[in-house]
């Protein structure tokens, strides 16, 4: 049990895919460091334990979503949540992380003291209400980028009049049975594309209502590429080569779409037409008003979304919801949809760094006033790291690079007798939004996020190759990072 007086080298906030990844790096590379992982919920696994809606799975292949040093050995590449959760927990146990995890420990605030060069970390036990305070040299926020306690649902008029069931995917009830019921899913993002075909297996009819279409690509759920590489190069080298190949393929697809959006649109449309019934209105339902990768691409495992449309168990409606009625929904076009169950797959509520307040020497940190450094620190905030993965590739690719660089940086300061480091923003640095993605949940949160600069190391790059050069190949120190000593210690040294 964590004691109120406990002092650590690192406090990791969050025991999901990112937090476990950072902790595994600390255990493996710097076993001399004392760390703890604080998890607000009663279980590890983060997203993969939280979401319980039908069909929930990864939309990235597990070779790149998994940890680089722990090969994914299951045949399914777009793995269901239960298999990902088992993988994360097995990796945690094998990496010696479990003994460092404290469940039901919610971080409520952190405050930096320059005098002591320490963070005070306020913690509340979510199971008992007990309040604790820990101290640590470093804090690493790995709690994801969205609120776990609530999803985003826009205001719908007439919701109280509806006689059926309304549910958000983030709060899926265990006892909800859709067998032979009419289900309407509002939304067209990754969750909806995954959820709709799974619901269609039991429901009488599933209707997906989208204000605007999205790009959807069918991807094979199983992949024999890893096996082929391993047969030629052996298990270890073959797996590493397959992983590099997949990383390169993802990057090439993204670059092609960004450089040649018109061609990409035509190719995606051609793929969609081949998967849809003859005469289907592709231009209405699969022609987004934005270019590929202005928003994250949606993935249909083995083309299941298109198969459900072909079979007639799913219908698409491109329209807006005016209000709920007693029997269902009234759309802007005047069309009425009858429903027994309405699923509001309308997105997430972004919450950077776990949502807890941060203060440096009693001055509150206002995130939009700060700029990211190397994609994992903030200017003017000492000894604080965080994890934000890629929006155009597997999340873990970025987190794994950050975890390695962070661990080496913490170790360097420890080995050289320095207490702290802080990124210092250069004068005249031009800034822009942190995440240049058109998704609704990102747009709604831009004013609450830190910014990025226009030159390295102040850019939030979404290119794996660039991050390898900056986070893996380059030294942990550069001209933008200032080393510090505790003021109390500096005074003693001066005397």
Automatic annotation (TrEMBL):
Keyword Oxidoreductase: yes
InterPro entries registered for this protein in UniProt: FAD-binding_MO, FAD/NAD-bd_sf, Flavin_mOase-like
Pfam families reported in the protein's UniProt record: FMO-like (PF00743), NAD_binding_8 (PF13450)
SUPFAM superfamilies according to UniProt: FAD/NAD(P)-binding domain
Xref: Gene3D superfamilies: FAD/NAD(P)-binding domain
Cofactor: FAD
Entry keyword Transferase: no
The entry's keywords: FAD, Flavoprotein, Monooxygenase, Oxidoreductase
Protein family (similarity comment): Belongs to the FAD-binding monooxygenase family.
Protein name per the record: NAD(P)/FAD-dependent oxidoreductase
């Amino acid at each position: 049990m964590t004691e109120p007086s406990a002092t650590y080298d690192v406090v990791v906030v969050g025991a999901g895919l990112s937090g476990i990844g950072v902790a595994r790096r600390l255990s493996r590379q710097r076993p001399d460091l004392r760390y703890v992982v604080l998890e607000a919920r009663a279980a590890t696994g983060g997203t993969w334990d939280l979401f319980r809606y039908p069909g929930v799975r990864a939309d990235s292949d597990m070779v790149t979503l998994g940890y680089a040093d722990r090969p994914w050995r299951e045949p399914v590449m777009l793995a269901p949540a239960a298999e990902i959760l088992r993988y994360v927990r097995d990796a945690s146990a094998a990496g010696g992380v479990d003994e460092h995890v404290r469940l039901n420990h919610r971080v409520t605030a952190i405050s930096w003291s320059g005098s002591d060069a320490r963070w005070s970390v306020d913690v509340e036990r979510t199971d008992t209400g007990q309040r604790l305070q820990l101290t640590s040299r470093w804090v690493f926020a790995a709690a994801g980028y969205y609120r776990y306690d609530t999803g985003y649902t826009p205001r719908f008029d007439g919701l109280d009049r509806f006689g059926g069931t309304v549910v958000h995917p983030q709060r899926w009830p265990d006892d909800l049975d859709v067998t032979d019921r009419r289900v309407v899913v509002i939304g067209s993002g990754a969750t909806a594309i995954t959820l709709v075909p799974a619901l269609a297996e039991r429901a009488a009819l599933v209707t997906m209502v989208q204000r605007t279409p999205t790009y959807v690509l069918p991807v094979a759920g199983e992949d024999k590429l890893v096996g082929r590489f391993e047969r030629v190069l052996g298990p270890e080298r073959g797996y590493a080569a397959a992983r590099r190949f997949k990383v390169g393929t993802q990057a090439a697809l993204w670059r092609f779409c960004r450089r040649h959006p018109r061609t990409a649109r035509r190719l995606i449309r051609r793929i969609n037409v081949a998967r849809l019934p003859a005469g289907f209105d592709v231009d209405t339902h699969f022609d987004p008003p934005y270019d590929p990768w202005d928003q994250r691409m949606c993935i249909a495992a083995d083309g299941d979304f298109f198969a459900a449309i072909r079979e007639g168990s799913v219908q698409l409606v491109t329209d807006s919801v005016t209000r709920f009625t007693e029997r269902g929904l009234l759309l802007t076009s005047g069309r009425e949809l009858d429903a027994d169950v309405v699923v509001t797959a309308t997105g997430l509520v972004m919450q950077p760094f776990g949502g807890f307040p941060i203060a440096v020497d009693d001055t509150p940190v206002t995130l939009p006033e700060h700029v990211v450094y190397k994609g994992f620190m903030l200017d003017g905030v000492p000894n604080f790291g965080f994890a934000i993965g890629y929006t155009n590739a597997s999340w873990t690719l970025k987190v794994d690079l950050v975890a390695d660089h962070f661990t080496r940086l913490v170790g360097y300061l420890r080995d050289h007798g320095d207490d702290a480091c802080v990124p210092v923003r250069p004068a005249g640095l031009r800034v822009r939004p942190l995440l240049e993605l058109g998704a609704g949940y990102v747009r709604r949160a831009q004013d609450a996020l830190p910014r990025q600069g226009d030159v390295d190391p102040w850019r939030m790059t979404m290119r794996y190759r660039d991050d390898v050069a900056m986070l893996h190949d380059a030294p942990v120190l550069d001209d933008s990072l200032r080393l510090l000593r505790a003021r109390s210690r500096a005074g003693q040294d001066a005397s």
